[in-house]
Amino acid sequence: MNCELAHERIVLGAYGELPDEQAHELDRHIVGCPECSQEQQQLLALKTLAKAYPVVEPDPNFITRSRIRLEEALDTLPPKRWYERFSQRIVNNFSSLQAAPVAALLLLIVGAGAGTLGGYEYAQARAAHAAGRGPAVPGAKADPASTLPAPSTEVSNISSVVRQPNSEIIDVTYNQVIPQHIQGSLDDPAIRQLLMLASANASSQGVRDDSVGLLAAECRAGHACQGEGIRDALMVALRYDKSEAVRMKALEGLQPYVAEDIRVRNAVLEALLNDSDPRIRAAAITELEPVQADTGVRRVLSTVANSDNNPHIRTVSREVLSRTPVFQ
Amino acid sequence: MDGPDRAAERLEARAPEMALIREAQAGSRAAFDALVRQYEQQVLRLALHLTGSEHDAEDIYQEAFLKAFRYIGNFRFECSFYTWIYRIVTNICLDQLRRRKTRREDQAVVLDHSGDEIDILASVSDNRSFSNPAKELDRKVLAERIQAALGKLTPRERMVFELKHYQGLRLRTIGEMLNTTEETAKNTLFRATKKLRTQLAGLR
């Protein structure tokens, strides 16, 4: 380090602007350079001397006086005319746009990407539909193990497309949705299985409604209903289905099991505490009456009697509680 | 080196001020008054120390905030409002210093609004339990010598030295305020300290 550079760094170091490694380098130079050491002493002396003219905080009265004078001046300014405000807003908006090139570029990329994807999806759907209707492609070797999708089936997805090396043969792997039809009684295990699946997975509320209703009515219809799978399906519907009608049917279907099955009782208690529909909560109270002596049930009824936001529910809960003698 | 987390923290801290600025840009006088209150003390402190006169400091304060009110619509959040307002103040101060240079005024004392001299050292606390008139006089003379030496700097050197030594700002910030680079601010500081050392050499 030469002395000219050292003199500059002495100033920076005195004012805290020197990085640590440069400060260390400067210290080493000063130790061996009397001239730079004197330079540093003089600068420190200057800093000390400069304190003789200190910065003082302005007097509060001075601040107040200045502020009053400013406010008076601001009061006399004419308000901005509408076209001045409008043009200012236009300029600011334009500047904001100018200052956001990255956002504009991202928007362009996202828009182009969405358009490309949409076009690809449309082309795929068209191709799948055409393949279902049209003849086999000339020159294509048909794999005896597979056939083109029948007109009544749908291709749910294409999982792979592979071109054989040095060949014009292309391997396509796809999945099909094949509609099926079955009929039977509620005692038929296959029908029950499908009804339980439908109660949880059907995308149509009407299908879920019908399947839960049939499962719930199974016992009342005189069919065997000992299988736990049916109760599980009804409990799932009671807890999670989005439709109040489906949940109400599930609750009605669980009524025969409230006394004997603690899981069913807990599911009904959950519905009483958490269901958003007051009719379902009221029906849950009715179903719990036979087991109102249960301490768990009483605890929940007591909570509902105090904190439910529906006054009718609170009243009914209190009535049920009052009818039950408390054993000491 | 500042990381993205520090930048996000600074942005979050500035959020209430940004809301005030937007309101002021929309025409809210109350929002502008709130901004004035946030910065008025610093502005007056700087102007008073630079000019040595309450009257001149008040003029600088008035001119700075009137300009800020008039041009706040042009503020685009590309820098902090602190930097923006200080840019206005330092430009006005530089104009003031240039006018003084032209008139060759030698403001060796601090004056209040009625033109009477203020003893700036009287507001500086003295650790001793008894007064020492001789020492007080020495300090007063020293202060006058310092002010005279500062007066011999160019307006830009005076401004950079004021902002760095007395106001404690970073050279990078000073560069932004004076619409120049950090390197230029650094070189200006070197020249200012060299000149002051030469002026005050006999006082050591």
Quote the beta fraction of chain A.
5-15%
Q: What's the shape of chain A?
A: extended
Shape of chain B: globular
- Count of separate structural domains of chain B: 2
Largest interface comes to: A-B, 39 and 52 residues
Strand order of the largest sheet of chain B: 1-2
Per CATH, the class of the largest domain in chain B reads: Mainly Alpha
- How far the N terminus sits from the C terminus of chain B, by CA atoms, comes to 38 Å
CATH architecture of the domain at 189-323 in chain A: Alpha Horseshoe
What's the CATH topology name of the largest domain in chain B?
Rna Polymerase Sigma Factor, Chain: A
The CATH architecture designation of the largest domain in chain B is: Orthogonal Bundle
Q: What does the oligomeric state look like here?
A: heterodimer
Q: What is Rg of chain B?
A: 19 Å
Keywords:
heterodimer, A: mainly alpha, two-stranded antiparallel ribbon, B: 204 residues, mainly alpha, Rna Polymerase Sigma Factor, Chain: A, Arc Repressor Mutant, subunit A, 8 helices, 70% helix, globular
